[in-house]
Write a structure and sequence with these properties.
single chain; mainly alpha; Cytochrome Bc1 Complex, Chain D, domain 2; 7 helices; about 65% helix; globular; binds heme C; Cyt_c-like_dom_sf
């Protein structure tokens, strides 16, 4: 008897987990934005924290969140995956800044990141620094 009541919930959970786009994406978006302050609090104190939250704020204003979340893979890799892949060196930061502005593909899969030609390089740099701080 209990199983009959549980079945719809289990089924909808499976359905949500299996469905990659649409509603599921919106849910993740809500979850990620409510998690954002928690992630910021984990960033090192001081100047790094100020820089990181500036990058986080810039990311919030742009279209990045359509394709990226901090710890969930959407269209693009989770920022934490990106942070795990690249050391926060100047060379890597510059490379990723160019990538965000010019767009690109082939590092994480077949899907390409849209170019952001209007994005000022300094802003892109704050964003990348924030992403790479998410270790
Ligand atoms: C249309 C979806 C989309 C949007 C919008 C988008 N990205 Fe991406 N992003 C991707 C995909 C897909 C990849 C993986 C590309 C690859 O495989 O090389 C990626 C990769 C990245 C990487 C890692 C690049 C590498 O070479 O490893 C960074 C950093 C990044 N995105 C940051 C951003 C930032 C910052 C923004 C907002 C200005 C943004 N993305 C907007 C889809 C997107």
């Amino acid at each position: 008897m209990r199983m009959r009541f549980l079945a719809p919930f289990v089924l909808s959970a499976v359905f949500l987990a299996a469905c990659g786009g649409g509603k599921n994406t919106e849910k993740k978006e809500e979850a990620a934005s409510s998690e954002a302050p928690v992630d910021n609090s984990m960033v090192k104190a001081g100047a790094a924290e100020a820089a990181a939250s500036k990058g986080a704020a810039l990311i919030e204003q742009k279209d990045c969140k359509t394709c990226h979340k901090v710890d969930v893979k959407l269209v693009g890799p989770a920022y934490k995956e990106v942070a795990a892949k690249y050391e926060a060196t100047d060379a890597n930061i510059d490379m990723l800044v160019d990538k965000v502005i010019a767009g690109g593909s082939g590092h994480w899969g077949e899907v390409a990141m849209l170019p952001h030609p209007d994005l000022p390089k300094d802003d892109a740099k704050e964003m990348v620094k924030y992403i790479l701080s998410l270790k």
